[in-house]
Amino acid sequence: MVFAQGNNDNIQNVGEPAGPDVRQKVTGVNECRCKDCALLILTVLKIVLPRFQINTNTNILITQQQWFKSLPIITRAWFGVTMVLTLTGNFGFLSPYYYVFKWQNIVSKFEVWRVATCFCYAGGFDFNTLIAMYTLVTFSKNYETGGPFNTGAGGTYAGGERKKRRSTIDWGIFGSFLFLLLVVVESYQYWTCD
Amino acid sequence: MTNTISDFVLYFVTGGTADYAFAMLFAMVVILATYPLLMSVIPPLFCRNLVYFVLYVWSRRHPTSQANIWGIPMKAMVRVIY
User: The whole model's pTM is what?
Assistant: First the structure.
């Protein structure tokens, strides 16, 4: 890990906040204020957001926290993790390199979080990222609360009222598709050239 | 606000969440497995790909529903083209 290979000069300053001289001694640069800026912004958000209110059509005032708790469970988890990872990646707490999907590291170094975190980093601070986050929340919530919709889990209707149960050929198509995917996954090392 | 185990189980048997979880798993498997074909095209971060999967499937399911894109209301089927 990157964090393990530091020098031991700052051990005596454990109890003290790292000033500019300590930071300069440890890292060699004095210009990185990313963590300070992030802490400032997060503190301001923590104070402001619970007081920020959305006026809905029914004249009920909902705070941000209540809005987040009102989301369905998968949407809540996905949106929360995406928010945390995007903010930490952009403010410099963690490099986004640790989020990307790299098959060699997953196999050889057991960095298994890469399977999940590559779906939870929306990108840099950008207008497209904002639109992506809005789309994520809106359509994920619509999908999850929109009632039964059979996409293979079984048990509910597919294709409206005409088709009451999932037929065998659907499972056949699904199984063959999974088999193709397995073939692709197993030939992964031939596609990656490193 | 009582959050018991039975409430937690109810999330997964009433239909929407179970199907959504399976669809998400399926989409993640497909995206990860087909990434070798797209290695020179996209970076290995698939958040927006998963978002567009959800958008596409929901729009196919509800083609005539009203949806907003950048604050402009339009039919959901238009978003499929987009």
Answer: 0.59
